[in-house]
Amino acid sequence: MRSEKIEGIGSIRGGEFENIQIEGIGKLKGNAIAQSVSVEGLFKSKGKLETKSLRIEGIHRAFRDIKAKEVRIDGVLKLRRASLLADKIICMGVITCTNEINADELEIRGICSIANLYGDKVKVNYYSEAREKVRGIPTQLSLVMNMYFGRKVSFDHNSIDYVECTSLEASNTTFKTIHAQEVSLKDYCQVEKLYCDGKIDIDPTCSVGKIISNGKVLKDKENNDMANPTLMKILDLYKNNKITADEAEKMLGAISVSQNNNNDTEGQLTWSDDGKLRIVAFLGRKLLKKSAPEASKIEVTLDGDVLNVDSYGSLTCGQVSGNATAGSSITCGDIGGNVTAGSSVRCKNVTGKITAGSGVVIEK
Amino acid sequence: MKQNTIALGEKHLEGDYHRILAAGDIWLKDSKTKSIYTAGDIDIENSCIRKIYSAGDLTAKAVTIGLGKVAGDLTLQGICKVDKLIVVGDISAEYLECTCLRNGSNNSKVNNTLHWSGFIKAETFESVAPFLLDLDYEFATMIISGPLVATEEIACTNFYGLDQITAPCINADLIYLLTNDGTEVGELVGSSITIETKFKPDKIFKSIPKTLRYNDLYSDKSLITIEAISSDKVIINSVKANSVSGIDVVIGDLCIVDEVVYQKSIKISDKAVVGRVVKQ
Amino acid sequence: MLISKKDLLNETGISYGQLYRWKREGLIPEEWFIKQPSFTGQETFFPKAKILKRINAIKELKDQYSLEELAKMLSPEVAERMFTEKDLQVIGEIYDGLIPCFCKVFEKNKFTYVEVLFLTAVSIFYKEHDLQLIDVENICSGLIQYLPEIKQTDYLCLLLEHNGTYFAVIQDEKSTVYMDNRIKHIAKVRLNDISANMKIKYRKRFNFMFDEADEDDKKDNPLQVPSSKGVLA
Lengths: 364, 280, 233
Description:
The complex is a heterotrimer. Chain B is mainly beta. Chain B folds into two domains: 5-220, no CATH class; 223-280, no CATH class. Chain B has one helix and 24 strands. In chain B, strands 12-13-15-17-16-14 form a six-stranded parallel barrel. Chain B has a two-stranded antiparallel ribbon with strand order 19-20. The mean pLDDT of chain B is 90. Chain C is α+β, with helices and mostly antiparallel strands. Chain C has two domains: 2-78, Orthogonal Bundle (Multidrug-efflux Transporter Regulator, Chain: A, Domain 2); 83-201, no CATH class. Chain C has helices spanning 5-12, 16-24, 48-61, 67-74, 76-79, 85-90, 99-106, 113-128, 133-143, 191-201, 215-220, and strands at residues 2-4, 34-38, 41-47, 83-84, 110-111, 155-162, 165-172, 184-190. In chain C, the strands form three sheets. A three-stranded antiparallel sheet of chain C has the order 1-3-2. Chain C is elongated. The two termini of chain C are 28 Å apart. Residues 207-233 of chain C have low confidence and may be disordered. Classes of the chains: A mainly beta, B mainly beta, C alpha+beta. At the B-C interface, strand 17, strand 18, strand 21, strand 22 and strand 23 of B face helix 1, helix 2 and helix 10 of C.
């Protein structure tokens, strides 16, 4: 079986190939089947592409569906009116899709803007380092960029319109609708509607409009805010010149304070009653975020063993059955899973990987 | 009665005196004395003093005092009775009974929160300084013109809150609150509850024994939040409340109330927002 | 069964002011004010049988007695708590040597709060005026029959002497008594002072529930927890 390699400028009519390798500027004009496809330059596919392995380090613009076993994107994949169907997708660069992406396993650690996403295990974590991958694309001119990708793309957060999967883990991503069995949202995720009958874990930095779980509406932000009759009445008083702007401001201030206070109540919490110990810190009246420098100064000491642990600051505990993550140092006993620490790690046996900002001490 | 005595340094005194002037610490026992002025600490036992001005700490056991002004801390044992008592420091009292009791001076500012303990009974308690109400007390009237924090329900006959008040509940026949930013009260219950943005002393207030004059006072016009108000007579202004229940109810300007339950009469300002009105 | 505040006021015809004044005065225990979540935040409920019985009792008695007197009558310090021989030993003001004598004269070893105040007064007389044991016995047996009639503590206890014999008088504080000047007035104590002292000194020792909840009420309100507040508070 032949292989195709384009080093300068060239085009492929289609057919069956062993390997397709694009190092210059290439174009696929017909349908192609290949064992592996590697894109290091610019590649435009106007025919269907089916491959076991697709690796993109350059820019690949697809106008017809791609079917692959495994896809690794370190560059840019732009799917316009085309779908990507794969067993496993790992995206460290940029992926945009106006149609559908369907994968058993999908991990995005770069930037994405996807219309529809279907999968089993989906992880969407934004890393700003992925900006480097889009050198040459005029990211400053959002209009031009949106025209180029065919979708609105932000290089500050990810964007997915519709996602349907078994488990979803996301950070810094905007969703319109999520349907999932298990959901974990972190770091400023924004969701309009979330349908989840299983475990829901949403960090306080995230904003979720409506949560529907097991047929019940757990939270409806719209009803809380916009449909608030008190707010409407205050605005009416102001409109009808019954109260001054200052007075209206005071009244609105009073209801917003009480609503903020109500947010502390159990019914307003965005996570299920999962038995997890959550320790939060406030700086004045503001919730301390992970990125705040004060967060790393906090030291949490847990007396006893834990299942999984995630701390913004330092962490001291007994045995950890699962994974341990801390913004600063970790001191603990045996760890069953992986360890990720901003600074040093001091522990006993570790079954998984250790990632530490500074020294690692394994005690015997 | 013996004549005046001047005590320099430490001195132990016993018996009756007209006037005692002390620069150092003194101990006084079984005495009837007209006036004591002391710059140091004073320890009195089983005595009756008409007037005492102490710049230091006062420790007393079973004493009766007419007028007491203590700049330091006060420690009382046994049953002690004082007509008018003004204390700038902390009090620890086994049993203290006063007509008028005031914390802090009106002309010297106390910044730290005073802490009193023991049992104190007073006809009128005036709080000028920042105060943590965490003691056993029986106050008929409370006039609060400094920030007050109570960890439990405040109970008295008349309560005048003219400064920032934090309490889970106030239960008094008459409750008057001046709307001040930072006031957080869970529940107000009583016979007559008034919340205003301006305080003008009325006849009842004028008739209450007190040590200070309270002329017309104005609030910072903040909206205060009270969860529930239940009283026979309710007049409120600039209040955000979940529920207001009463026999005669007046919901004044800038009020936001979720539910009003009334028995006889109701008046709602056209500058107020009320959710549900129910006639009982 | 619980009753809401709204229904309670309707049913009993009392005002908000009365309800909360009685709470303040200790006529209605704080534990009976049960907060439950409602549309507007929280609503107050009461154990129906208990509160109706208590309010009716207060309404009947309020014209005869002041609220303070009623509080003393209805509060368990006067009405319900019994003090054992061991409790008397804890009270320092009661002379230990007199306790067997009290038990003998009263023919019991459990005493009401008013009796305890009286025994304290007698102990004070015994210590301060060198009374004999027989004098104590005579004083106690002379007044024993009147003690159950005392429902509050606004009384004076006087020690009198005539021809070497000691007598005691329990007198309403507000009433004026003109005594034959041949009777020598030896000493006087206020039951209120003794009571106040006891409140201070033995608060922790006699820290018990305000009202012993009976089984029915426990069923009515399973959430009720024992109060940490002593009745002497």
